[in-house]
């Protein structure tokens, strides 16, 4: 397919661009296969806007006389307005954008066309391999092994080819366990708590059905992670009633009779369309231009967004508490084990593991617990809060996770190596990106699409020193401890950096960040200078003593 | 009383046993056992209500709510003891004479001269001079010399030059409580001014020539503009109701060249109830997100804060952008008027955003113009209907502005919290009484100490590390956003849940940056010393001089500012389910305490803690501080889990 066929009017002049908090600018609008480009003809600081078509969530058009207006709402929640003279041009442009922003073939997406303008220092596709993670693990314990049972994606289509499993369980048993778990997602190691040797595993629901099916291998696998005499917790992300209902559809939960050393805790984490609706309502509230305080608070409340945040954080804290404080191993699952399960396991690691609070560690976490673990990014992030097409598989699951990280970050502002911008950047790229990292729904699909060969990895770009410096938290001081966030409503706030990002003037907050960076930078410079002088002085003094000897 | 249990509001499991003492000025709870013997001190004047609840098997519960938003729950074993404590506290918390207040017995061990110096720190004459008056338009009037015209005004009042004593007196007779229009803020760049007064006694048709002349004079004092705004900060309905009582608002037809404007800020009764409702939300045990947001909205608190801010923004805009003078009033002109004038001044003039300037602002718009501190904050036993969080709201407005303009203020959040605390504490004489006249009669300056001097002495604790006097945010007028979608008015947990440390961010960016800045300063000094020594050494070497310094490296080892300060961080209760599981002893896990930067440095500098070591009103945070004051053992808190907040999530 040629993109040119879809672009009837590639260029329009005298277009006026309106963005909140910026003066309207006049300029030229160009459409390419993947971008909408606007450039003002002002010589001084030519204002340019490059917008990926895949970032466009919805488009509205209206006319006043022959002046057409297009309102473009983006997946990163930005809203811009273009006034385009000429009805035909406007209609052409609108329809082109509509088609180009909703291409259904993955291989037509921009990552397959994008050619980086930077030198690749490290290929991000191989930056975070599970093998490396395992190497790290085997330095502290030998209770686990790497299994390649899923090498051909035949045991579990949504799992990566390798998984870390208890050493005592062989591949044959894993195959049987896979048959007993929804989508073949057998329990695998998610996190190993070095301090006390406790493990966090994740899986999907067991297929007990109404007649209480059992699987000896599953019971053995789950139990093999317990030390003798110790107990474990199964954290089910569904309420009991929902878990019971699931039995009618062949799903279910671990019966205590068959898993006597395990205690089940049900925590309710919302999923799918409920989250999407909540997301839509929240964004609507945030874009409400009225000056009324009451309406704002009731809309915020009605969106339920912060309630989801609170529930999710609570569940993650609970998992972390079981591991660190109760000295118990934990198994987390919901139904499919691809959404709320991953939210809980990855957040628990943020709380427990200082490594996950570094930039590289967090990237590794996203790769391990989200990309490799088979969170269906392509489905979940197909549309954002402005879209009218309501597919039931769209949900801001990853965004909720990022926001929870932000909430913890806000409570421990010196314990994270990355800053808020880093989280926002990940949110943007999950929804629209020039990189292939978030394409596809699992490793299997990514392998089929040959993403590592045909596209650039986000990590190749982010981990370059030039880019990294933008994402560093100046206040970071490595904190090796477990950080327990507060989940009280008073402690949780709306993530303004995402939801009010385009509505608020950011100048004053940016200036504050700049001040913070400068204060730290100056301090470090001085430290270096003082140290150098001290050394120099010590040398000179030593010389002097030598001179004196004879 | 012995064997009293102090309950943690958020968790019934964490109670500590100790002894309760009542002194002439404080309630003191001392924990039994353990090396630390933590103490909790509460000033009687901070007590806002005491509630005796039904006796249970374990004893008689007593609930003490404080004006600084601390809530203390005690269980006293004997009903009779409890009753005695209750009766005593009721009496002690409601003094009837000023002499009973703490400031008359409080002695920070300063000599007479230091005390006098302290009172001179904030000088309003100096402030008016700074603004640029007196000048060719404004003069100081001695008409209120002996409080003869208005007993709630200061003796020295600035009025337009063309306003004669006759006009002033005439105008004062036409205004509630004779509070005639007087200068609050003068903008020397464009001659526009903010004046304040009470409502006119216009009724349905009354006029007063002198009052009309007075407003005319204010307009003439600003030659650049041909009209003035008259801002009535009340809702229109309230103002109209006042007309029936012979009061009311200015009729545009009777006054030449005024533009009249209502700004609906509710009255003190509405505000009191609103705060009450919000505090009930804060006190909820493990509220859901919906409970909290719904309760917050229902209280209307943030709506009221926004109304005050909007009024301030309107006036600041009129003065700065239109160059038009504004006369502000409400009913009596001492509550809403004070709020609005001070918010507007703060927006207009960067000076008021400095530490000293903020003190001056409160002294000018609140203290000198007769804001009724005694009535509003219930220092002496009085009419509960007079009590209202008027200045609390102003302080919150400032905090909301700090959130929006992080580099614009020289002071930090702690400064605001401590001022709020001392408005109620009566530890210093600044906020006693209802007017300057009363304070003079009581000889406050001779008999008590000034808060401002105390805060100034500890100013390093109150600095905002992001403030630079040459930063763009510290110049000129601030233009805040007003729509919720552009700027959020947030719930201020640092104030209203101030004593629930578990709810706050566990690491303070402000303290971290201040520690870094302090270290930077030391490094600068060391750098200088080193450079000097290096130069000397080089000189001596090149001259083959054998004289050398054997002195030891003087440079201090600064060490990490983080290492000796830590605060325990323990998990909260995330689930009910865990309780039933045989769990290990809760006292484990000291090593887990997350590092909190310099948290303890700041605590020891809290005003009420450092004021004097034995008589402090340790409401701040004695619970987190070791008796020795300085460095704090990392395990101190985790041992008792006292700092933990617990949220039942089930």
From TrEMBL, chain A:
GO terms for molecular function: protein phosphatase binding. It is found in: Cell projection, Ruffle membrane; Cytoplasm, Perinuclear region; Endoplasmic reticulum. GO terms for cellular component: cytosol; endoplasmic reticulum; perinuclear region of cytoplasm; ruffle membrane. It is a peripheral membrane protein. Residues 509-543 form a coiled coil. It comes from the Eukaryota. Gene3D superfamilies: Pleckstrin-homology domain (PH domain)/Phosphotyrosine-binding domain (PTB). The keyword Nucleus does not apply. GO terms for biological process: negative regulation of autophagy; phosphatidylinositol dephosphorylation. The keyword Cell division does not apply. Keywords: Acetylation, Cell membrane, Cell projection, Coiled coil, Cytoplasm, Endoplasmic reticulum, Membrane. Pfam families: Myotub-related (PF06602), PH-GRAM_MTMR6-like (PF21098). Residues 124-499 form the Myotubularin phosphatase domain. Belongs to the protein-tyrosine phosphatase family. Non-receptor class myotubularin subfamily. This is Myotubularin-related protein 9. It comes from Poecile atricapillus (Black-capped chickadee). The gene is Mtmr9_0.
Automatic annotation (TrEMBL), chain B:
Residues 513-540 form a coiled coil. Residues 118-496 form the Myotubularin phosphatase domain. Substrate binds at residues 267-268, 330-336. CDD domains: PTP-MTMR7 (cd14583). It comes from the Eukaryota. SUPFAM superfamilies: (Phosphotyrosine protein) phosphatases II (SSF52799), PH domain-like (SSF50729). Keywords: Coiled coil, Cytoplasm, Hydrolase, Lipid metabolism. The active site is at residue 330. Residues 562-650 are annotated as: Disordered. GO terms for molecular function: phosphatidylinositol-3,5-bisphosphate phosphatase activity; phosphatidylinositol-3-phosphate phosphatase activity. One of its GO terms (cellular component) is endomembrane system. GO terms for biological process: phosphatidylinositol dephosphorylation. Residues 299-343 form the Tyrosine specific protein phosphatases domain. The keyword Transmembrane does not apply. It is found in: Cytoplasm; Endomembrane system. It is a peripheral membrane protein. Residues 562-588 have a biased composition (Polar residues). Belongs to the protein-tyrosine phosphatase family. Non-receptor class myotubularin subfamily. This is MTMR7 protein. It comes from Poecile atricapillus.
